Amino acid sequence: MGEEMTNGTGEGGLLAGGGQPRREESLARMKELLPLLRAASRAYYQEDQEMMSNREYDQLYDEYEALERETGIVLAGSPTRSVGYEAVEELPKERHESPMLSLDKTKSPQELAAFAGTHRSLLSWKLDGLTVVLTYRDGELYKAVTRGNGEVGEVVTNNARVFAGLPLHIQYRGELIIRGEAVISYADFEEINRQIPDEAARYKNPRNLCSGSVRQLNNEVTARRNVHFFAFSLVRAEGVDFGNSHEAQFRWLREQGFEVVEYQVVTGADMEQAVQSFADRIEENAFPSDGLVLLYDDIAYGQSLGRTAKFPRDSIAFKWEDETRLTRLRKVEWSASRTGLINPIAVFDPVELEGTTVSRASVHNVSIVKALALGIGDELEVYKANMIIPQIAANHTRSGTLEIPAACPVCQGPAEIRSLNGVESLYCTNPECQAKRVKSFALMASRDALNIEGLSEATLEKFIAGGFIHEYADLLHLDRWREEIMSMEGFGEKSYENLAASASRARHTTLSRVVYGLGIENIGLANARLLCREFGEDLHALRQAQAEALSAVDGIGPVIAGAFCRYFADERHARELDSLLRELTIEKEFAGGGEQPLAGKTFVITGKVEHFANRKELKERIEGLGGKVTGSVTNRTDYLINNDRASSSSKNKRAQELGIPIISEEEFLELAAGEE
Question: Do the beta carbons of residue 589 and residue 512 sit within 8 Å?
Answer without folding.
Answer: yes
